[in-house]
Each structure stands twice: as structure tokens, then as C-alpha cells.
Write a structure and sequence with these properties.
0% strand
Length: 450
């Protein structure tokens, strides 16, 4: 099923397109959280810390997959909106060819640098071996992760957000079942968590690819599309490379923050690991809605319907605020209970306290983060990558620098301890939100003047 987002009621079209994407990411985050929950409950605090310590490194690999997803999605959306189906199929073929080569290269690099990267972030000795093991297995499944994300980007570009949802539901449920089997029954510990993710992502990625190929055959064109086009690669790369750089710099920033957290010991790592998974659930939900807005904007820009883009932003913001409310309530008022999903209060009281403090400080600012991310999604869909990257890098730099100073990692005995790390999040979101709004205003002004 393909879906033309350039006609019809804006609220209905955008929300019906975005909500399946939101449900998809919720299932994805639920199984990510399940990894940590099962590791913490059945394998202990150190196992949770080991998975958490490798998390910012795994996000480096995820950054390339998500950036490629974004690049192909925007270009394919624009071509689909313009009804240029032959070039659209050429863009898809080119994307798959390049992404396959890139995934193989990155998998090899991942195997080579697992150990140095774990050392770089000062992973404590008591969790180093397990953390490295988890990372190595994760890297082995990178091709499947890449395949699934690119397929999802193409489905979304075609206005089909339901098919990725079905595959993600299948993958999520399968991952949780395998987690319980490998960790709770077979007692494989951290390796069991990693293998469950490997298998679930692998099956989902392969099924997504073959379903997409069948779907594309239903779009009839005259002649055959090129298997590869340098011109199309350049067009996709103009969106994908800034997106990959943005995601990569965010991941590098998270590695710095992980280093700061690691200096406070394994209890702090466990608490942060649980809290950051919960925080990521919220932020990824907003990012997914922003991706939906990107596809909506790109299709309408391709169809030269700029007024629908402006109205789509306000429709998307309303949906993002509605999503932010339950996250704020759960994390701000019930932080202890949320942390108890991952850790036993009788055995990890300090870790739970640390994680709850992070959630209490960050969650009131989710509404600010939602505005920033929705504006970023619009800028990305319009191809205005300079504004998109300026906002993201400001957020990242402020968060990393302030976290270092406020925690006392830069200047010993001058800071608020681990609380200082959490304080950096709201400042980064707030300032970068202002930058995103300014660039969005400029985009609309330019459209009015042209």
C-alpha cells in the first residue's frame, strides 16, 4: 500500500500516517527496554551495567542506519510526490547498493575497534568483558539493522507506515520471547540479550526487504530503472550525510557523557542505563513523529504545495504534545516505580535513586524537546540541512560541555556530582529549540516572499 500525502485533510492524513510510526517505535523501545529489564532482573546489576556501558557505542552504528533511512526517505518522498516513479526506483536501487557495501565495511571496523572503544569510555573492569561481548554480537548483526532501517525509510517515503509496524511488532515480541528463553531459562547472561536482538532484527530485516520488493513491482513505469546512479547517490547523500553526521555526533556526545557517568561507578552506570532507556523511549517517540512530518513535508514540497507544509507543522506539534504528557506524568511522578522495572529495590537502591533523579530533572522539558524535534523534522523534509544540523550540534555541544563542568569531571571538587550531568539536558534542549524555531520561521518567510 502506498499513500499520497499531498491531498486530503491535513490532520487526518498526517496523524493516520504518523500514529502507526509512533506505535512502531513504541514496540521497538519496549523490546529495547525489555533487554535491560531482563538483564537487570535475571542476570543482575552488573549485567545491566554492561549492556548500558556499550549502549552509546551501539548508537554510533545505529546513527549510520538512521541517517541512511532519513536520506533515502526524503529524496524518495519528493520523487513520489512529484509522480517521478522511474527516478524513484533508481534512487531505491542506488540506496540499497551503497548501503550494502557500507554495512559490510562498518561491520569489519566494528570488530576491529570494539575493544578500543570500550576502553575509550573507561568501562569499569568488573563489566568490561560482558560489555565487549554484547557489543561484538551486536556488530555482527549490523547488516540486518541497516537493512531494516532503510526498508522502513522507503516504506514511509511511499506513505506506508503500517507495514513497518507489522514487522516491528513481530520483531519486538520475538525479541522478548528470545530474551526470556536465553537469559531466564538458558542463563546465557549478556550474550543471551545480544543474541536475542541479533535474531529478531535479522528475521525482521529480511522479511521487510522481500515485502518491499514485492510492493515496488506494483508501481508500473515505462522502461527499466537504473541499478545504480551516481547522480542519484549525490542527491541522496546531500540529505543522508548530514543526517549521519548529526546522528554520529550525538552518539559521540553520548560516549562522552557515558565516560562521565562511568567515573561514578557501576551503580551509577546501572541507574543511568535504565533511566536513559526510558528517556530514549520518549525522545525517540518525538523523533519518529518528526520523521513522519519530514515525509509529509517532502511529498508536499515535491508536489509544490507549500501551504500544506506550514499547516502540517502545527498539526504535528499538537500530536507531539499529546504524546509528551503521559511520559512526563510517568517519569516525573512515578520515577521510582519506573526504575523498579529494571532493578530490584532491595539490591540496587542507590542505582534506582540515581536513575529517578535523571527522570525528574529531564521529563518536564519534554515539551521543549518536542518543539525542537518537530521543527527539525520539517527542516529536514524541506532539505534545509544547515538549520537542522545547527540546532542539533548546539544541543550536543552544550550538553557535553555542561555535563563535564557541572559534574566536576573537568574541574575536580567543583560541580554538583552526577546531578550536574542530568542538569545539562534541559539547557541543551531549550537553547537548540530557539535555533530550530528561527530556522523554521526563515523557511516559511522565504516561501512567502518567493
Amino acid at each position: 500500500m502506498v499513500n499520497d500525502l499531498t491531498n486530503g485533510n491535513i490532520h487526518k492524513k498526517l496523524w493516520l500516517f504518523s500514529i502507526p510510526m509512533l506505535i512502531s517505535v513504541m514496540f521497538q523501545q519496549i523490546y529495547n527496554i525489555a533487554d535491560s529489564m531482563i538483564a537487570g532482573i535475571f542476570a543482575g546489576e552488573d549485567a545491566l551495567a554492561a549492556v548500558g556501558a556499550s549502549y552509546p557505542i551501539t548508537m554510533l552504528f545505529m546513527a549510520v542506519a538512521i541517517g541512511s533511512n532519513t536520506g533515502c526517505s526524503v529524496v524518495i518522498s519528493q520523487l513520489f510526490g512529484a509522480k517521478d516513479y522511474k527516478d524513484m526506483k533508481t534512487a531505491i536501487n542506488t540506496t540499497f547498493f551503497v548501503c550494502f557495501l557500507l554495512s559490510i565495511i562498518l561491520t569489519g571496523l566494528g570488530f576491529l575497534f570494539c575493544n578500543p572503544l570500550m576502553k575509550l569510555i573507561h568501562t569499569p573492569d568488573n563489566i568490561f568483558v560482558d560489555g565487549k561481548l554484547y557489543l561484538t554480537i551486536y556488530v555482527a548483526g549490523f547488516l540486518f539493522l541497516f537493512l531494516y532501517n532503510v526498508c522502513t525509510g522507503i516504506f514511509n517515503a511511499l506513505g506506508d507506515s503500517r507495514t513497518p509496524l507489522y514487522f516491528l511488532i513481530f520483531s519486538s515480541i520475538g525479541n522478548i520471547i528470545l530474551d526470556l528463553l536465553f537469559v531466564a531459562v538458558f542463563h546465557w547472561g549478556v550474550a543471551g540479550v545480544a543474541f536475542a536482538t541479533f535474531l529478531a532484527q535479522g528475521i525482521s530485516g529480511i522479511l521487510s526487504f522481500f515485502t518491499l520488493q514485492k510492493r515496488l513491482k506494483g508501481i508500473k513505469i515505462e522502461g527499466k530503472p537504473a541499478k545504480y546512479s551516481s547522480k542519484m547517490l549525490i542527491r541522496v547523500a546531500k540529505i543522508a550525510i548530514p543526517s549521519i553526521l548529526q546522528q554520529s555526533f550525538v552518539s559521540v556526545g553520548n560516549m562522552f557523557i557515558q565516560t562521565y557517568v562511568n567515573s561514578f561507578g557501576s551503580a551509577a552506570i546501572a541507574g543511568y542505563s535504565a533511566a536513559i532507556k526510558l528517556n530514549t523511549f520518549a525522545i525517540t517517540s518525538f523523533t519518529t513523529l518528526a520523521n513522519g512530518l519530514s515525509s509529509f513535508a517532502a511529498q508536499n514540497i515535491g508536489a509544490r504545495k507549500r501551504e500544506r507544509v506550514r499547516k502540517g507543522l502545527f498539526s504535528g506539534l499538537l500530536l507531539a504534545f499529546l504524546v509528551a504528557v503521559p511520559f512526563f506524568i510517568l517519569y516525573f511522578f512515578f520515577g521510582n516505580r519506573m526504575m523498579s522495572l529494571f532493578l530490584k529495590p532491595s539490591e540496587a537502591g542507590n542505582a534506582i535513586k540515581i536513575g529517578k533523579e535523571f527522570l525528574t530533572i529531564a521529563s518536564p522539558f519534554y515539551f521543549i524537546a518536542a518543539i525542537k524535534l518537530m521543527c527539525d523534522g520539517l527542516l529536514r523534509g524541506a532539505g534545509m540541512m544547515a538549520g537542522f544540523m545547527s540546532s542539533t550540534f548546539t544541543d550536543l555541544l552544550l550538553r557535553v560541555i555542561l555535563a563535564g563542568f557541572l559534574s566536576g569531571n573537568f574541574i575536580k571538587n567543583l560541580g554538583y556530582g552526577i546531578t550536574g550531568i542530568w542538569m545539562a539536558w534541559p539547557v541543551g534542549w531549550s537553547i537548540s529549540m530557539v535555533i530550530s524555531i528561527i530556522f523554521t520561521w526563515y523557511l516559511f518567510k522565504k516561501d512567502r516572499d518567493s
